[in-house]
Specification:
15 strands; elongated; 3-stranded antiparallel β-sheet; 2 domains; 6-stranded mixed β-sheet; Rossmann fold; 30 helices; alpha/beta; about 675 residues
């Protein structure tokens, strides 16, 4: 990311190392998210932080220029410095991406990358990906090796337009005889509010459009600009009284608390969609910048000003450019899990960024001759960038491939953006688990895999079967023996069955927990089923709870049954892993059926509740109560834009009806589940 360096832009401007430290925090949050770390599932907020920083720093630079020149902005100087700062490193990265992807990418992928590189070189990548409906939250990052250029495009578009807007408003206010900063602040605030409202409204219809759009991201840049336009706010903040004491005394701790808030917002515990999360991050980042400015020292500043962190912040732009390519190579060429990918990417991307900073970026930025020759420098920088992006890189990607393949791939790429892959729909529908091979009465007849390590069994109905392939791969990785005890329409909550289901479910549950599990003596028990607290799915209870129950009574009965099963398994010394039920679509909004009938993917979305259901809360309570119980929440993995659920994520069909995951998509979550289980000590 860019977030302009103060040190290089204005030698007279007092350097604030803590802002470089904040850049470092932001960029590695993004790296963690792109690597697929479960604990950084919200790490994309690093981009939001950068946008606010960029708006703040660029506006400060432009205001200083206005003051020094008596009301002018030296546009040639500004644009030339932006070009020297950004274009060389970006051009080299795009060229390296072309070289690497030409050797590892498939034919269809190559054509996509050629178009993406062209858009990236012109700094319109964000609009290109809007047009392509590219999913920023998809797992298959290797299919879009320059997808991260979308944020650079947003910033460059801001850099291009904002100086003109700022200068124009300054001129108009002078002619009108008004206090131009007051007018400007009101204008910026109105623009930011309009942008934020637009982002929220558009996200309900098209989340990709809201996430990538310059207009729907402008509020973050303008929020930083508004802070720069209010230079006296920090001083006034120090003088405020809070509880009889000056706020100045607590400000150093406020900055630390706000920094911790950013860390929380980067975790999967915050279950809002990316646009809403972006609004929260914007508010927190503005407050953090203000508190850092207002506090005279303090622990927050000290942490962010640590020399290693400051240096990493100075090279954060290069780290952001290079890390994605490293992840692409590792994803294509290795079987590494997300933590290993992160562990490799950080030093490699940081090393490349440091090399670029020392050998390429700094010599160009500090060259006195180039500083004087602003017009030629800007023109030559643009020419080189365009030459690389529009000519050299696409030519490398086309090297060695027959024209027929290229044309075929091009047609495939176009078709993929406008229609549903019918073959994939059919395959997903018929890719189901064979229950006859895995009777719950004889689970040893369903041995998924054998190994020398732990023994495990997966128990439940068709939703548990959905995870069979994923759990088999997980077991093979860890030399586990995995059995299955599965029966259609029979949940694992002992004593509960779906209304209208044959009574053999209750007897099968008894056999499973009284006979089969004790006989197999597994170390780990995996549990999964459809949400039995679905208001559209009646329940029948056994024993003292005989009959159908609804509402609060059902919730209480369900809680008792969950507790009974989990407590018995834990008492026997077993580890328990429970897959929380995924969001389901209304019966009349089956996204899979919709895919089979329409050409428009967006028309097959459905809306789910943002609030956890009672069953989820009870499962999480078990997780907190017992160290040997792990509750796995896949809501964000199966519905990344919650409450809006897409039928296709990362090019894969998510559901094969209104409530089941496709087996293929469930299997794609193996790295995420593995990381969670390793963190919890299950594996």
């Amino acid at each position: 990311m860019t977030a302009v360096s103060e040190e290089s832009e204005h030698s007279s401007w007092a350097y604030r190392p803590h802002l470089d430290g904040l850049r470092a925090v932001a960029v590695y949050l993004v790296v963690g998210f792109h690597a697929g770390l479960y604990r950084m599932a919200g790490g994309f907020i690093g981009v939001d932080v950068f946008f606010v920083l960029s708006g703040y720093l660029v506006t400060t630079i432009l205001l200083r220029d206005l003051e020094q020149t008596g009301g002018r902005i030296r546009l040639a100087r500004f644009y030339a410095r932006r070009a020297r700062r950004l274009l060389p490193a970006a051009a080299v990265t795009l060229l390296a991406t072309a070289v690497v992807f030409a050797s590892i990418g498939g034919a269809a992928e190559v054509v996509d990358v050629r178009a993406a590189i062209r858009a990236a070189s012109l700094y319109v990548a964000n609009w290109h990906f809007v047009r392509q409906s590219a999913d920023y939250f998809a797992a298959d990052v290797d299919a879009n090796p320059v997808l991260h250029f979308w944020s650079l495009a947003v910033e460059e578009q801001f850099y291009l337009l904002w100086p003109l807007v700022l200068w124009g408003l300054h001129r108009l206010s002078l002619r009108a005889g008004t206090r131009w900063r007051t007018v400007l602040r009101a204008f910026v605030a109105a623009l930011a509010l309009a942008s934020a409202v637009a982002a929220l409204r558009i996200s309900d219809v098209d989340l990709n459009r809201a996430y990538y759009g310059t207009d729907t991201r402008a509020y973050q840049l303008l929020a930083g600009a508004l802070l720069a336009l209010t230079p006296g706010l920090a001083t006034r903040l120090r003088g405020l009284q809070l509880g009889g004491a000056r706020l100045e005394r607590t400000l150093p701790w406020w900055s630390l608390a706000l920094l911790a808030s950013l860390a929380v917002l980067a975790t999967p515990s915050v279950t809002v969609d990316p646009v809403e999360r972006g609004l929260l991050v914007t508010v927190v980042t503005v407050a953090l910048l203000l508190s850092l400015e207002a506090a005279n020292g303090g622990v927050g500043r000290w942490v962010l000003s640590l020399p290693p962190l400051v240096y990493l912040g100075k090279i954060s732009y290069g780290t952001y450019l290079w890390h994605w390519l490293v992840i692409v190579v590792l994803s294509h060429e290795t079987d590494l899990g997300s933590r290993a990918i992160f562990a490799v990417t950080v030093p490699v991307a940081t090393g490349l960024a440091s090399l670029s900073h020392q050998v390429l970026e700094t010599p160009i930025r500090s060259n006195a001759i180039l500083d004087r020759l602003r017009g030629p420098t800007l023109a030559s920088g643009l020419a080189i960038s365009l030459l690389v992006g529009l000519v050299a890189a696409p030519a490398m990607l086309a090297e060695g491939r027959p024209p027929a393949v290229e044309l075929e791939a091009d047609a495939m790429a176009v078709a993929a953006t406008n229609s549903v892959d019918r073959a994939k729909v059919v395959d997903a529908f018929f890719d189901v688990f064979d229950y006859d091979a895995c009777p719950s009465s004889v689970p040893t007849a369903c041995t998924f895999t054998t190994g020398t390590g732990q023994t495990a069994i997966v128990v439940g109905e068709s939703h548990a079967a959905t995870y069979a392939r994923m759990l088999t791969e997980l077991a093979e990785r860890h030399e586990m023996t995995l059995y299955g005890g599965l029966l259609s329409f029979c949940p694992w909550t002992r004593g509960i069955q779906y209304a209208g289901v044959a009574a053999d479910c209750l007897s099968a549950q008894d056999r499973m927990f009284d006979e089969i599990i004790p006989a197999l003596d597994p170390d780990v028990v995996f549990l999964a089923h459809r949400p039995v607290d679905d208001p559209n799915q009646p329940m029948e209870m056994s024993d003292a709870d005989i009959g159908r129950v609804k509402g609060a009574e059902r919730d209480r009965a369900l809680a008792r049954r969950i507790e009974d099963v989990v407590e018995d398994l834990v008492a026997d010394g077993r580890k328990v892993v429970i897959f929380e039920p995924i969001p389901i679509a209304p019966a009349d909004e089956d996204p899979f059926y919709c895919l089979d009938k329409t050409e428009v993917i967006a028309g097959c979305r459905f809306i789910t509740s943002e609030d956890p259901v009672p069953e989820d809360l009870e499962l999480r309570a078990m997780d907190e109560r017992f160290d040997s119980v792990t509750s796995i929440d896949l809501d964000l993995a199966t519905c990344p834009y919650r409450p809006i659920c897409d039928p296709i994520v990362g090019g894969e069909i998510v559901r094969r009806d209104n409530n089941h995951l496709t087996i293929e998509y469930a299997a794609s979550l193996v790295d995420l589940v593995e990381e969670r289980l390793e963190v919890e000590g299950v594996l």
